[in-house]
Amino acid sequence: MLYILGLYCEQLEFLKSIYFRTFVGFIFSFLVVLIIGKPFIKFLKKKKYGEEIRECGPVSHYSKKGTPTMGGVLMLLGSFLTILVTGNLYNKFTLLLIVTTLCFSTIGFIDDYKKFTVNKDGLSGKKKLFGQSLISIIVWIFIKEFGLTGSKVVDFSISNPIVPNMFFYIGSFFMLLFIMLVVNGTSNAVNITDGLDGLAIMPVIISCSILGVIAYFSGHIELSAHLHLFSIPGAGEISVFVSTIVGAGLAFLWYNCYPAQIFMGDTGSLALGGVIGVISILLKQELLLPIIGGIFVMEAVSVILQVGSYKLRKKRVFRMAPIHHHFELMGVPENKVTMRFWIVSLLLGILALGMIRLRGIM
User: What phi and psi values does residue 169 have, to the nearest 5 degrees?
Assistant: First the structure.
């Protein structure tokens, strides 16, 4: 809406500014989620949409039983309402991100809802992966039809995150498989990380902030050339989109920090992880993503190692997986585990930005 006003009204041309709309997007989404947060939590309590705690989990988590979940609905509602106000709905990246986020959140919502109405397990892992893979195909078709950099060779390549202008062409089919790996992996990794109060949302905020900065650089002809990033026309609008997630996420943290009044649920974690994966693909920063989202990688790898070790050797690597539970069982308080993971996530984000800057001087 702001962009359209700036487009057709000369006196309001400043409304087209990405800077301005990113700022408004952050503030507006923060206020929306903060204001409707309490009534939404009361609604969930009334409907008895509370978290079921696994009996095999840490004993300290039993007190959390009944805490309202599906907080992702709150967060994404704030984000979507804001992007309708601040986003450029003529921009192909904005439209793709709206569609893919809605698709991921639908998978998560069905999973959350089934846990309360059908069975405690929700959607099966195979059905989730099938839905996530369909979304990856949408992203692949988008790249194939509309392009990113103007070069099909670059679009279907994996770029080196350190060495400028170095990429490895893998072709259209293998790019589809790679997109599935990145998007599905990130979506599920954030879902795995969402196990402690406030643990997942802050790394999501940090990751989105870093990707938002990179998006602005990539969409700016001079800055992308200066930093040796691929020039991606229109990518600056991704910054506006992620600002709504950052604002909504920060307001959600107001209610999700220890002790949590509401949990994110799969509605939020699958959608946020999925959109982070999609954005990394669109910005050609797929190999920088494991650094930006290093916490998510660590959590996912801990589960893979635990399951693999037990199946092969009948022995566990960790006391419990994901790894945040391992630290809890070692006696580290939950809020301390969370804060330390936040610190590591921030350091990794700074490292990722440092690597981007390093490209500019090479």
Answer: -75, 130
Peptide bond connecting 322 to the previous residue in cis, omega within 30 degrees of 0: yes
Helix ranges restricted to H, 257-293: 265-282, 289-292
Q: Is the pTM of this model over 0.85?
A: yes
Q: Any residues with CB less than 8 A from the CB of 267 and at least 6 apart, and which?
A: 70, 71, 72, 73, 76, 105, 108, 109, 111, 112
Q: What 3-state class would DSSP assign to 66?
A: coil
> Around Cβ 83, how many Cβ atoms within 10 Å?
25
The string of pLDDT tens digits covering residues 129-140 is 999 999 999 999
pLDDT tens digits along 148-176:
998 899 999 998 888 887 889 999 999 99
Phi, psi for residue 108 in degrees, rounded to 5: -65, -40
Query: How far is Cα 358 from Cα 362, in angstroms, rounded to an integer?
Result: 6
Q: How many CB atoms lie within 10 A of CB 187?
A: 30
pLDDT tens per residue, range 309-352? 988 888 898 899 899 999 998 999 999 999 999 999 999 999 99
Would you state the structure tokens that stand for residue 169, as one six-digit string? Answer: 């062409």
Cβ contact 279:97 at 8 Å:
yes
Strand partners, 159: 167
Please give the single-letter amino acid code of residue 204. Answer: V
**HSE-up of residue 53 (Cα within 13 Å, Cβ side):** 14
Q: Which of 90, 79, 186, 92 is nearest to 136 (CA)?
A: 186
Residue 58's pLDDT band (boundaries 50, 70, 90)?
low
Which tokens in the block code for residue 263? 């949990």
Measured between alpha carbons, how far apart are the two ends of the chain, in Å? 41
- Which of 179, 189, 184 has its CA nearest to residue 142? 179
Specify the pLDDT at position 53: 60
**pLDDT of res. 70:** 85
Structure tokens of 30? 């923060």
